[in-house]
User: Which sequence fits this backbone?
């Protein structure tokens, strides 16, 4: 138990994450009963539910949150949908998935993106944990969709889902990539485009060439967005390093300047 929580706080937070995992399992049961989901779908869906419960419980207990909050409940609902989508995508490698159901779940998850942020601002419950939770759910949904679409359009589509995780891995080697980025509507728009493009391609409504063009355009915009952010972070880190070097170089000189005696 985190030191900054009372016993009641921790119990309520754990109840929220446990209920979320229970709803996730219930969704899997509904999908499995209705569409006869195979072992791959069940295993992947249950693994997602367990991992989400473990990671989220640890995160909330280590955070300063006293209550889970309505915005985090919306994000948890989206995560539940993503768990169902993940199970269906895993099952698609063994049997034909129910496209209508998968597209429907994905559409709802994408439509709810941003709702949690609005709820957080409206209720005054914005938090760093909530923002990170929302971002991780979005990133994993894009990864899962890119894996599914890659089965029809080619492995290159996985670059859309993998790009964010490659960026995170690169930040372990180059810490300057962890710098704080300025607010950008262009970045948010590009991120939203990825989900829409992958949803359209996954629906099968477009012929192969059109679907490939849509997804390729989305990948191009994502590459531009990441490239712009990396250049901004590199330039910012370089400027900060130059300022630090200048400060260290002038410090000995300042020590040699005698202090003026008051008259």
Assistant:
């Amino acid at each position: 138990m985190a030191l900054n929580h009372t016993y009641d706080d921790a119990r309520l937070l754990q109840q929220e994450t446990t209920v979320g995992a229970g709803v996730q399992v219930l969704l899997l049961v509904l999908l499995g009963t209705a569409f006869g989901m195979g072992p791959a779908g069940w295993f992947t869906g249950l693994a997602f539910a367990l991992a989400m419960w473990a990671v989220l419980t640890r995160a909330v207990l280590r955070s300063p949150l006293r209550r889970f909050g309505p915005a985090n409940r919306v994000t948890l609902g989206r995560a539940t949908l993503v768990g169902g989508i993940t199970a269906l995508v895993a099952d698609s490698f063994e049997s034909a998935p129910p496209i209508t159901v998968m597209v429907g779940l994905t559409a709802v998850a994408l439509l709810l993106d941003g709702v949690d942020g609005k709820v957080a601002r409206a209720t005054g419950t914005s938090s760093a944990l909530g923002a990170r939770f929302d971002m991780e759910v979005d990133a994993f949904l894009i990864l899962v969709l890119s894996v599914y679409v890659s089965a029809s359009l080619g492995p290159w589509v996985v670059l859309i889902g993998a790009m964010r995780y490659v960026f995170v891995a690169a930040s372990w080697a180059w810490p300057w990539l962890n710098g704080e980025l300025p607010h950008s509507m262009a970045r948010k728009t590009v991120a939203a485009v990825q989900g829409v493009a992958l949803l359209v391609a996954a629906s099968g409504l477009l012929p192969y060439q059109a679907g490939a063009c849509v997804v390729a355009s989305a990948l191009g915009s994502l590459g531009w967005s990441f490239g712009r952010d990396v250049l901004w972070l590199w330039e910012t880190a370089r400027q900060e390093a130059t300022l630090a070097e200048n400060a260290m170089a002038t410090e000995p000189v300042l020590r040699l300047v005698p202090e003026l005696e008051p008259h």
Q: What stands out?
A: The CA atoms of residues 5 and 232 lie 38 Å apart.
